[in-house]
Write a structure and sequence with these properties.
Strand content: under 5%
Largest sheet: none
Number of helices: 18
Distance between the termini: 28 Å
Shape: elongated
Radius of gyration: 24 Å
Structural class: mainly alpha
Length: 334
């Protein structure tokens, strides 16, 4: 008996016909044993036909209860990582193929109540990564996660962020009715996120901005001012002051706007967004020299290493996707 056949026997899959699934199963097992790089190399050496046949046959065995100790979680994460690797390499055909396989394994995982939490967190992690690429499937992943866990604060936050981003897209195209509908959806999800986790600062911050964009400046101001009094996160405080400055500026309260923008700049001296806004407010107040200095700081901020928090605000929680995926990777290799 070959070593591969022996390995398949140990996995409980030796009763299945030999063929394309052999190489496929060995890569999943390689991933589960803690060699993700080697598993990815092996998986990406399979052509599209070998990939599809191997995955489909293996899923068939698992569905019939013949999977033995085969790890569905490892298969899910292996395909997820392969999809992201292909996407970063601009190999879109392979990206779609790997993503389809990951989704198929995710759906299989959801049939088992004890594994739903892993599937939910996988949808949040992958959706967050796709949101960073402006992929419309991010929202679908988040909504499917809510189907598994209807009260999950992180998923409500994520759906709200996609709706808020869509509202900004519609504003650029002057589609006001549709924009207001998306803002309404975002507000609903942020409130549900806060119902599940009242101290979730990101939800409060986003809700404040959505209220501002919906024309409810008074509600937005009260919420954001409360956030500035309690938050210890410099990123949250920076954005809250930036939004408060916008509320004051829109209302013609230029002194208060400049004060809020200065507080944002104090939190991030080389920020572009806050310095640009401060410069506009100072210019309107007739303080040309101070405005010019703020704009010089904004220009120097283009050379900074860390991004301005406003730059990635529209990408939601995508900056956390790496940490979320790493946790799942570790669990799948147990």
């Amino acid at each position: 008996m070959s070593l591969l056949a022996s390995g398949l026997l140990w996995l409980g899959l030796a009763s299945a016909p030999a063929g394309p699934a052999d190489a496929y199963v060995s890569q999943v097992e390689r991933y589960r044993r803690g060699d993700p790089e080697g598993a990815l190399r092996g998986l990406l050496q399979l052509d599209d036909v070998e990939l599809q046949r191997g995955a489909e046959r293996t899923r068939g065995w698992v569905e019939r209860g013949q999977g033995g100790s085969f790890s569905v979680e490892a298969a899910l994460m292996l395909h997820t990582e392969a999809a992201l690797l292909a996407r970063r390499g601009s190999s879109m055909v392979r990206f779609e193929a790997e993503l389809a396989q990951a989704q198929a394994w995710g759906e299989l995982l959801e049939r088992h109540p004890e594994r739903i939490d892993f599937a939910r967190r996988w949808r949040l992690a992958l959706g967050s990564q796709l949101m960073g690429w402006r992929d419309v499937r991010a929202r679908r992943l988040f909504e499917e996660g809510l189907r598994l866990s209807p009260r999950d604060p992180a998923l409500h936050l994520a759906v709200g962020e996609t709706a808020e981003a869509q509202a900004a897209f519609l504003e650029e195209r002057q589609l006001e009715r549709q924009r207001q509908a998306q803002l309404g959806e975002a507000e609903s999800h942020y409130r549900q996120a806060l119902a599940g986790d009242p101290v979730l600062e990101e939800a409060r911050l986003h809700l404040g901005r959505v209220l501002m964009e919906s024309g409810r400046a008074g509600e937005a101001q009260a919420l954001l001012q409360g956030l500035t009094a309690t938050s210890r996160s410099s990123g949250v405080l920076y954005l809250a002051q930036l939004f408060l400055g916008r509320i004051h500026q829109d209302a013609g309260r230029l002194d208060e706007a400049a004060r809020s923008y200065r507080q944002a700049v104090a939190l991030d001296p080389r920020s572009q967004a806050a310095n640009l806004a401060l410069g506009q407010a100072l210019e309107a107040l007739g303080l040309a020299d101070e405005a010019a200095e703020a704009w010089r700081r904004a220009a120097s901020g283009s050379e900074r290493n860390a991004p301005d928090a406003w730059w990635y605000y529209a990408f939601g929680e995508s900056h956390r996707s790496g940490a979320l995926l790493e946790l799942l990777r570790v669990e799948a290799a147990r």
